[in-house]
Design brief:
Blueprint: H1 2-10, H2 12-20, H3 26-40, H4 46-55
Length: 57
């Protein structure tokens, strides 16, 4: 729980925007993450998956 709270504080502007604005990129980002995970299934480690996801943001 502490790690989750720390992550929220780190990106507080995005949290506020997600709760107050009428539009959000949440579903788009989840879809992109699932697409990358499916493409890499069984091929590489979590570390490589993490690098690919972070490299595209």
């Amino acid at each position: 729980m502490r790690g989750f709270a720390t992550a929220l504080r780190r990106d507080w502007d995005a949290v506020v925007a997600g709760l107050t604005l009428s539009h959000s990129n949440g579903p788009t980002n989840v879809n992109r993450l699932k697409l990358i995970k499916r493409a890499m299934f069984g091929r590489a480690s979590f570390d490589l998956l993490r690098r690919r996801v972070l490299a595209r943001t």
